[in-house]
Amino acid sequence: MTQTVAGCILTPQGWVRGQMLFTDRIHAIEGTPVAEPAFDEALVLPGFVDLHVHGGGGADVMDGHGAMDTIARIHASHGTTSLLATTMTAPRSAIELAMADVGRAMQNPMPGAAHILGVHLEGPFISPAKLGAQPDVVRLGTTQEVSALSALARIRVLTLAPEMAGHLDLIRELGGMGILAQIGHSSGSYEDGVAALNAGASGFTHLFNAMSPLHHRAPGMVGAALAHAQYAELIPDLLHVHPGAIRAARRAIPKLFCVTDATSGTGMPDGTYHLGSHTVTKCMGGVRLADGTLAGSVLTMDQALRNLVSIGIPLRDAALHVSTHAADYVGEHERGRLQRGAHADVVVMSPDLQLRHVFAQGHAVNLAVH
After folding, report:
1. CA within 20 to 30 Å of 196's CA: 38, 133, 219, 227, which one?
2. Which GO terms are recorded in the biological process aspect for this UniProt protein (predicted)?
3. 245 labelled as ligand-binding?
């Protein structure tokens, strides 16, 4: 059955005041181009694309046993229509358990839930000097382990520390496997970052966090990203990264995209939750280890959009950061945009950027209750 939404529609060419007709795909966008939405009209935006999701609704990707169903539903209720299930550094058996559940969920997609694009393998091939909230069970990466894990569920993105022995060669091999190598959880130098990019690395994991910082005489991984990257992910919860640093990254990196790095406490009351093998506490809008270290976030993508707009980023640009750039990064050119033939992944928001409706591949999503 063909459905219709009306309002000011954000297309790749700009705003159109009118209506959009869709089933599971967009059939037509009809209306008049306008420079900006009116102050009182509904906003029709591309569904959000989140490439770094550890959990939500009390469930963690590492739980296995059906956790992905809960995670896909809770994030869809906040406007995320596509996501990458993100693992933690862990023994191989624990990662295999998580990957098997992701593979099951991908083979049996739920209507009205976020579409699972695959896996973001965050670790275990990271630096022990930049664990962040990752458990200290790191190891060197091999194509054999990556291949075995990818047989359980498709790995789309893999975070690694390029300065570790053999990892430049691994980056080259990942490209041939169709996996995007991201630089992250790294204590490497600027030169290590440039070497990784030259070897085929594609982006940076949660830019500024868990990587060697920028200093004017030692630019570090942050400097390599700002000087050379086309793509990088960033957590805009306004806890992980200062608004000034977000603005600097936007000026330097053409296709900066936002992620939540969401954990099991997302969409849940304050309290104690888990992140992989760690116990974490949700309070004051964030989630932390016992020593106060930020441990992922409880951000949702609708809030990410509001945060970007609150620091002065135009809505059209903010929508690119939470949808189109991420979709392009992983080669999903029929997602993250509203145009004829694309998947009907749609969010409808009020003028003050509150969700009114979400459609995931044309299926209506039950919104979160606030």
Report:
1. 133
2. N-acetylglucosamine catabolic process
3. no
Q: Is residue 146 part of a domain?
A: yes
Helix (H, G, I), strand (E, B) or coil at 144: helix
Contact 233, 51 (CB under 8 A): yes
What's the pTM value of the predicted model, to 2 decimals?
A: 0.97
Model confidence over 212-250: pLDDT tens digits? 999 999 999 999 999 999 999 999 999 999 999 999 999
Asked, for residue 121, whether it belongs to a domain, the answer is yes
The number of distinct structural domains making up the chain is 1
Instruction: Specify whether 237 is catalytic.
Output: no
Tell me if 108 is assigned to a ligand binding site.
Answer: no
What is the amino acid identity at position 196?
A
Residue range 101-140, pLDDT digits in tens: 999 999 999 999 999 999 999 989 999 999 999 999 999 9
According to DSSP, the residues that pair with 204 across neighbouring strands are 183
Instruction: Kindly report the CATH number assigned to the domain that includes residue 135.
Output: 3.20.20.140
Q: Which of 50, 69, 192, 261 is catalytic?
A: 261
Cα dihedral sign, 50-200-255-308:
positive
* Residue 363 marked ligand-binding: no
- Of the chain, the end-to-end C-alpha distance in Å amounts to 30
210 is in an annotated binding site: yes
Within-domain flag for 325: yes
